[in-house]
Design goal:
The complex is a heterodimer of chains A (369) and B (87).
Chain A (H helix, E strand, L loop, with lengths): L7 H7 L39 E2 L5 E3 L6 E5 L14 E5 L10 E9 L16 E9 L3 E9 L6 E8 L6 E7 L13 E11 L4 E2 L11 E2 L12 E11 L11 H9 L2 E4 L4 E4 L5 E6 L9 E4 L4 E4 L4 E3 L6 E5 L3 E6 L10 E4 L13 E4 L3
Parallel strand pairs in A: 11-12
Antiparallel strand pairs in A: 1-2, 2-5, 3-4, 4-13, 5-10, 6-9, 6-13, 7-8, 7-10, 14-23, 15-16, 15-22, 16-21, 17-23, 18-19, 18-22, 20-21
Chain B lengths: L1 E5 L5 E6 L3 E4 L5 H12 L5 E4 L2 E4 L6 E5 L5 E3 H9 L3
Parallel strand pairs in B: 1-6
Antiparallel strand pairs in B: 1-2, 2-3, 4-5, 6-7
Chain lengths: 369, 87
């Protein structure tokens, strides 16, 4: 390229029609957060076997009606991800389970209304979107999923796709005409919900390719991953964007993706401060590193250890937590089950013991959809 | 099992689930929405099921899954009446 010229191809794909905004912006085009499965705050790469609905890698949630039918792990099986990706979400079936009519198994992500309001779904101006992703399975055939309204759960678009070759990464693309009906919040509530099916009974199965005013989340006849013991289902590069064709995956910087995730879940692991408000309780005020979607629920990963200004350390006999005042930007908490604290003494939660190893529970904050 | 907690001013400010999860009384918090739904949908002697997570009720079929801030288990009717007053 000669000095002073502009590469028209690059500019053209980024700002086609020069109408920046919904659908044309080259950044934040992907409405899915953590679509490359990079952030895993809860499990740090460890395998989990859901017994109830639970979060996996950040923003992705396992939905199930029967416990322990599959395990999930970031980079399960340690296969090579598609070119350009470093991580994937891996599901492994733990039995050959035959679904009953009311069963549903899947992986989902809900999108906040603020992040999809411009799509104008539920109106005559509803924007067309395209879902794209990389998938790899030990099974072949037709697989299913659905786009749904997260808030009401009664307006869905089942979709299907075909995996042609076993144990091979394949990229899929599905274009969905925006719905002109249904309830699609435009605030901090959940709006669009994306579901990838792992098996479903007749109650939740229907015909692909059209909006339906019921809770259909998979496709009739779709392959049931939970139906084959040892079957694998790996996925990454999940992108939902405005437009009628898929474009390249929107890579984000790690810190940026982490901050997007922290709006919904974050871990406070080191040195938040407070005061002993009795001999058995530690009161603390925590400013959130990222403003959360709503006032978060709080939990401890294990018993909390604190140190006071005289370097005396105390550990809860068992985890105990209560919120006192809560907001999206900061929260105050009390932690009971201590003994021997000096009332009024300044203390800090400490995750580093004398050996330098982790000895304290982390504070886990959740404002998920 | 859910328990109500008061702040230092004596106002109920938080719900504790299974002694592990502190839930703020914020309408936008989905754990709080689930708490209200579970209490309102409980039946005498029945079980509340939340996405595969079940809460067995106490031996007394009229006992609810909600304990007040003084440690007293509410009846199902009391619990439902209380939750209906919440935002």
């Amino acid at each position: 390229m000669a000095y002073g010229q502009v590469n028209a191809d690059v500019i053209g794909t980024s700002v086609a029609g020069s109408n920046l905004g919904a659908g044309n912006a080259s950044i934040m085009k992907n409405r899915i957060i953590n679509g490359a499965m990079v952030i895993d705050q809860r499990n740090a790469g460890a395998s989990v076997t859901p017994t109830t609905g639970q979060y996996l890698v950040d923003r992705f949630y396992a939905r199930l009606t029967q416990a322990s039918k599959f395990s999930v792990q970031q980079n399960a099986g340690s296969v090579t991800p598609p070119t350009g990706f470093s991580n994937y979400l891996g599901v492994t079936s733990l039995s050959a389970y035959s679904v009953i009519s009311t069963d549903i198994f899947g992986i989902r992500q809900a999108i906040e209304g603020f992040n999809s309001a411009d799509l104008a779904w539920g109106t005559a101006s509803a924007a067309t979107v395209t879902l794209s992703f990389w998938v790899r399975s030990s099974l072949t055939g037709t697989f299913g999923g659905a786009i749904a309204n997260d808030w009401a759960g009664n307006y869905n678009y089942p979709f299907s796709y075909t995996i042609s070759a076993a144990n091979t990464w394949e990229q899929k693309s599905i274009t969905i005409t925006g719905p002109t009906s249904g309830t699609w919040p435009t605030n901090s509530n959940g709006s669009i919900q994306l579901n990838f099916g792992l098996g479903a009974g007749s109650t939740f199965s229907g015909t692909a390719g059209a909006w339906v005013a019921s809770n259909i989340q998979n496709v009739t006849g779709a392959t049931s991953v939970v139906g084959t013991s040892g079957a694998t289902f790996y996925i990454t590069g999940v992108q939902l964007e405005v437009g009628s064709s898929a474009t390249g995956y929107e890579y984000r910087q790690y810190g940026q993706e982490l901050q997007l995730c922290q709006r919904y879940y974050q871990v406070i692991s080191q040195s938040w401060t407070g005061v002993a408000n009795s001999t058995t309780s530690f009161a603390s005020y925590v400013v959130h590193p990222v403003v959360m979607r709503a006032s978060p629920s709080g939990s401890l990963s294990s018993a909390l250890r604190i140190s006071d200004v005289y370097a005396s350390a105390y550990t809860q006999s068992s985890s105990n937590i209560a919120s006192q005042y809560t907001g999206a930007d900061a929260t105050s908490w009390t932690f009971g089950n201590f003994t021997g604290l000096t009332t009024g003494r300044f203390s800090y939660a400490s995750n580093a013991g004398t050996s330098g190893t982790s000895t304290s529970g982390n504070l886990q904050l959740s404002a998920e959809l | 099992m859910y328990k109500l907690v008061k702040n230092p001013e004596g106002n109920v400010c938080c719900v504790i689930k299974d002694d592990k999860l502190a839930i703020p009384m914020d309408e936008a918090n989905t754990d709080y929405q689930t708490f209200k739904s579970n209490v309102l949908n409980q039946e005498p002697g029945g079980t509340v099921v939340e996405d595969g997570d079940s809460f067995s009720l106490n031996a007394n079929p009229n006992d609810s899954i909600l304990e007040d801030a003084d440690g007293v288990i509410m009846t199902i009717d009391q619990a439902k009446e209380y939750v209906r007053t919440l935002p």
